[in-house]
Amino acid sequence: MQKIEPRIKQYEDMGLGLFIHWGLYSQLGVGEWTEFIHERPQAEYEQAIHTFTAADFNPKQIVHEAKKMGAKYIVLTTKHHEGFFLYDTHGLSDFDVMHSPAGRDLIKEFVDACNNEGIKPFFYMATYDWHNPLYKTDFNAYLEYLRKSVELLCTNYGTIGGLWFDGNWNKKDADWHLDELYGTIRRYQPDAMIINNTGLKNMGKVINPEIDAVTYERHTPDAVNHGDASKYVAGEISLTLNQHWGYAANDLSYKSPREIIENVAHSRKIGANILVNIGLTGTGAIPEMSRTYMHLLGRWTNMAAPAIYGVRPAAVVAAGNTKDFAVTNHLNTYLFIHDLQVVGNDNVVLGGEGINLRSFTGMFGKIKSINWLDNNAPVCFMQDTKKGALTIDATGFTYGTDWVVRVARITMSD
Ligand code: GLC
């Protein structure tokens, strides 16, 4: 039997997080990899520190918007691959926010705003670094620099939700001195989650016993690798609204709200957390488009809230539409129903009329009633408790609505 650490259980209960990419690169508006991919000479690129004002950075508002979206935690890039720190490094590096016109510790402001709203602050930290020459010339010395930068994050901001590392994939076979790094976190922040992004190609790989959650960058697997018998490990998938993580003004290739909502729903199916990403502008504002998407997702998470947080995949399996699934908590089981249509009439034919049967197996308890979460309307059902078979008439969306994924609450007979 796998043991579940309380911090990992708490993390899984949160379900949905907001990912925020922000750095000097945001001022250029062409993605967070621009220095590398566009082969910008380092000295020239790093001049961007002199125009970094953070003039529109309003962490209170960001946290407020995150909360409205339904996020329970936020992962903010404290340093990305470019090597620029959004916090006061107290002399560890000149390439930090204190040496920019912003001149204030933005991570402190972020953490304060999170704490005020009951949102857990997580720190993204790039381990792969283009700024510090030691990364190439004296790797062990670089690792000590990295460890110290993490120590600052663990000691200057009170209790944090976790550390989210990214970049070990750049030196796959190197000794990253993970015991020292993770040991530092455990020493100061015993309840912090330790997450290390395994990169695009190594989905869900556990690289060190201290890892608390595995990542599936941009992927949505059908099952999560929860580790071996020695430790239960959580899973996390991540999603950008368009194609880039960092702000990219001319990336117009936004996912449809349908795709985003279906992905968030899917994360519940596989019992993985999901991070939805936005990139702040160069001055630290939420781009208009991102804000709109956040509001939209917030409508859905607000409707589906009881079925999103603190739930786990149920042993109830859809027999028809395999996108459909069930989750459960200690009180209720919820059905997630996909591909429904709007119920109209002959004049506005929207296709949702008629009987819309969906079947499930593994439902043995006797059901008292089933109701849609969006309007509380009852759902007709038939059940064979011996066989564990359940069929519902999944009606369709009430005219005037289309929630993309509809959720129904099952109430059991006592
Ligand atoms: C990648 C990229 C990085 C991004 C991250 C988000 O590993 O290197 O730019 O921050 O994915 O998951």
UniProtKB/TrEMBL annotation:
GO biological process: fucose metabolic process; glycoside catabolic process
SUPFAM superfamilies membership: (Trans)glycosidases (SSF51445)
Keywords in alphabetical order: Glycosidase, Hydrolase, Signal
Protein name per its UniProtKB record: alpha-L-fucosidase
Residues annotated as domain Glycoside hydrolase family 29 N-terminal: 8-303
Function per UniProt: Alpha-L-fucosidase is responsible for hydrolyzing the alpha-1,6-linked fucose joined to the reducing-end N-acetylglucosamine of the carbohydrate moieties of glycoproteins.
Family classification: Belongs to the glycosyl hydrolase 29 family.
EC number(s) on file: 3.2.1.51
Pfam families given in the database record: Alpha_L_fucos
UniProt entry tagged with the keyword Amino-acid biosynthesis: no
Organism superkingdom: Bacteria
Enzyme class at the top of the EC tree: hydrolase
Annotated PANTHER family: ALPHA-L-FUCOSIDASE, ALPHA-L-FUCOSIDASE-RELATED
Chain segments annotated as transmembrane: none
